[in-house]
From TrEMBL:
It comes from Pseudocercospora eumusae. Residues 21-42 have a biased composition (Polar residues). It comes from the Eukaryota. This is Apple domain-containing protein. Residues 1-43 are annotated as: Disordered.
Length: 302
C-alpha cells in the first residue's frame, strides 16, 4: 500500500480549504481521528487475537502499519478482525511469508472541494508480504486526504517461519537475525563463492538453492586450466535492511557447509546507516560429502 506524503491540516499553501456544506451526510462530533485510535473495541480485538499456527507475532495493537517490507503482495479487505482468516489468505498466496492486519479510518466518500472532511468508515485490512515484517516497521500512521485524516489502530503483524525444503538440499536452518560469517577452512582455503541479490518478488529459499545448483553446473562446464572447479554445496539467504527499509534478498554461496554457530554477522554500520539482517536461513547439499574438506575437519564453532 503506498501512502501519499503527509500534509499538515493547517498548511494552506498546498490547497485551498473548503467547508463541508457539500457533504450529503455531516460527520458527527465524535467522528474524530483520536476517537478512532483510542477505540477500545479495536485494541481489545488486537490484544485478544490468537497467533496463527506456524506464525510468530512481530508486533501487537500498534497505531501504524508496516512499511519498507520486502516483497509487497497486495491486500484484502476483511469483514471482521480475524488473524486466522488473514493467515489463511496469506497461505494461499504463493510466496506470502507475513501479514499485517489492522483497522483503518477511511473517508466514506472521496473528499472534494465542497466536502473536504466527509464522515469516516472503518476498513479492516489484511496486507501480504513475500518477506518478513520486522519489529519497528509499523511507522505508517496514515495520511491526510484534504481535511480528512486517515489513521490506523489495532495493527498486528505475523511472520510464517515455516520454509519449504528445496529439492536436493537439507531442511533449512533458521538463523533469524544473523548471517554466516565463514573463516577459511581447515586447509586455510576460502569457501565463499559470491552472492546473488534479488530486489523484488517474494522471499524464496528455493531461488537461492537454484542459484547454488546453477553455479555448480556453470563451474563444471567452465573448469580452470588444470581441470579443477568448485561446486556450491551450502548457502545462506536472508533479507538485508537499511534501517527499516528492505534492500533485498541476499544469497551467499559456499563450497563447504558451516554450522549455525558461525552465524555471527548481525549487521554493521556504514557511515550513518545501519544494515541489519532478518529471516536468515541456511541449507546444505551434502551429496557425496562434497560439502566437507577431504583431508581435515572444520571446526564446529568460531
Amino acid at each position: 500500500m503506498t501512502y501519499l506524503p503527509v500534509a499538515s491540516p493547517s498548511d494552506t499553501s498546498l490547497k485551498v480549504r473548503r467547508d463541508n456544506s457539500g457533504c450529503s451526510v455531516q460527520a458527527s462530533s465524535s467522528d474524530t481521528p483520536s476517537a478512532f485510535t483510542s477505540n477500545s473495541e479495536f485494541s481489545d480485538a488486537a490484544n485478544g487475537a490468537s497467533t496463527p499456527a506456524g506464525y510468530q507475532e512481530i508486533f501487537q495493537n500498534q497505531a501504524g502499519s508496516a512499511i519498507g517490507i520486502y516483497g509487497y503482495m497486495g491486500f484484502s479487505v476483511l469483514d471482521s478482525y480475524s488473524t486466522s482468516e488473514c493467515s489463511s489468505r496469506c497461505d494461499k498466496i504463493t510466496g506470502c511469508q507475513s501479514f499485517n492486519i489492522y483497522y483503518e479510518r477511511d473517508p466514506s466518500t472521496d473528499p472534494t472541494d465542497g466536502c473536504t472532511n466527509p464522515p469516516s468508515t472503518t476498513v479492516i485490512k489484511c496486507v501480504y508480504y513475500g518477506g518478513p515484517i520486522t519489529p519497528g516497521s509499523q511507522t505508517n500512521t496514515g495520511q491526510w486526504r484534504r481535511d480528512f485524516q486517515v489513521v490506523i489502530a489495532g495493527s498486528n503483524a505475523y511472520v510464517n517461519n515455516s520454509i519449504a525444503t528445496p529439492a536436493g538440499y537439507s531442511t533449512p536452518t533458521f538463523l533469524d537475525k544473523a548471517a554466516i560469517q565463514a573463516p577459511n577452512d581447515c586447509n586455510d582455503s576460502p569457501t565463499y563463492m559470491g552472492v546473488k541479490i534479488w530486489t523484488d518478488g517474494p522471499f524464496s529459499v528455493g531461488n537461492c538453492a537454484a542459484a547454488c545448483s546453477s553455479q555448480s553446473y556453470y563451474n563444471r562446464a567452465h573448469p580452470a586450466a588444470d581441470g579443477s572447479f568448485q561446486t556450491c554445496q551450502f548457502f545462506n539467504t536472508y533479507v538485508l535492511y537499511n534501517g527499516t527499509q528492505a534492500v533485498g534478498q541476499y544469497c551467499s554461496l559456499y563450497n563447504e557447509t558451516w554450522p549455525a554457530a558461525f552465524a555471527t554477522n548481525v549487521g554493521q554500520w556504514r557511515g550513518p546507516d545501519y544494515f541489519s539482517i532478518a529471516y536468515s536461513y541456511s541449507a546444505s547439499n551434502s551429496t557425496g560429502s562434497l560439502d566437507e574438506p577431504s583431508n581435515c575437519v572444520n571446526p564446529s564453532s568460531p
